[in-house]
């Protein structure tokens, strides 16, 4: 796997080595040994999958400590614009984001460490989205910031008139009104 660093420390794009021939293709989508060596040591404990139609926007979600989650995400059918926003108080990149297009053709994955809010917008007719988490989901630890917060400067590539959001996601606060539970100077992972 090739690791592509982004402008925000810790957020990385993973590009697999794909073997193609007349039968189709093969690639290793995950290797704990290689991930631990090239990205960071981590133990994923839960895999999730969603299926959405064009215009669906999910996020920007996170889990509050002590149930914070890292995510390794990919789109196995269709195309999504995937976004991670730095929400670590005191971070030099606080409020900044990285956006990456994940598709069934590019097979890219995006690693989002703890301390980031995550969301995506579906750009194809249908998208099947998968993600690994390093902590179990706890509903009481649910958190989010508004996916429609214009101050974040995210071009979601979806016409706002065609955007489809859940009631829950419509209620998240703007970044300016948000008190982050993450601190840049506090370790997010046990040593």
From TrEMBL:
Belongs to the dTDP-4-dehydrorhamnose 3,5-epimerase family. It catalyses: dTDP-4-dehydro-6-deoxy-alpha-D-glucose = dTDP-4-dehydro-beta-L-rhamnose. GO terms for molecular function: dTDP-4-dehydrorhamnose 3,5-epimerase activity. Keywords: Isomerase. InterPro entries: RmlC-like, RmlC-like_jellyroll, RmlC_Cupin_sf. This is dTDP-4-dehydrorhamnose 3,5-epimerase. The keyword Cell cycle does not apply. NCBIfam families: rmlC. Homodimer. SUPFAM superfamilies: RmlC-like cupins. It is an enzyme of class 5 (isomerase). Its EC number is 5.1.3.13. Pathway: Carbohydrate biosynthesis; dTDP-L-rhamnose biosynthesis. CDD domains: cupin_RmlC (cd00438). The lineage of its organism: Bacteria, Pseudomonadati, Bacteroidota, Bacteroidia, Bacteroidales. Catalyzes the epimerization of the C3' and C5'positions of dTDP-6-deoxy-D-xylo-4-hexulose, forming dTDP-6-deoxy-L-lyxo-4-hexulose.
């Amino acid at each position: 796997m090739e690791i592509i660093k982004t402008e925000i420390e810790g957020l990385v794009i993973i590009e697999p080595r794909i073997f193609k021939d007349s039968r189709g293709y093969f690639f290793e989508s995950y290797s704990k040994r290689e991930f631990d060596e090239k990205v960071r040591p981590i133990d994923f404990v839960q895999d999730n999958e969603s299926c959405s139609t064009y215009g669906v926007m999910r996020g920007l979600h996170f889990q509050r400590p002590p149930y914070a989650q890292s995510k390794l995400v990919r789109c196995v059918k269709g195309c999504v614009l995937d976004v991670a926003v730095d929400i670590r108080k005191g971070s030099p990149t606080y409020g900044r984001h990285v956006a990456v297009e994940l598709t069934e053709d590019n097979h890219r994955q995006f690693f989002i460490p703890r301390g980031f809010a995550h969301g995506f917008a579906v750009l194809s007719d249908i998208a099947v989205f998968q993600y690994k988490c390093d902590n179990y989901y706890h509903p009481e630890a649910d958190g989010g910031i508004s996916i429609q917060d214009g101050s974040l400067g995210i071009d979601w590539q979806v016409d706002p008139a065609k955007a489809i959001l859940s009631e829950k996601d419509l209620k998240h606060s703007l970044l300016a009104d948000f008190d982050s539970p993450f601190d840049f100077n506090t370790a997010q992972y046990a040593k």
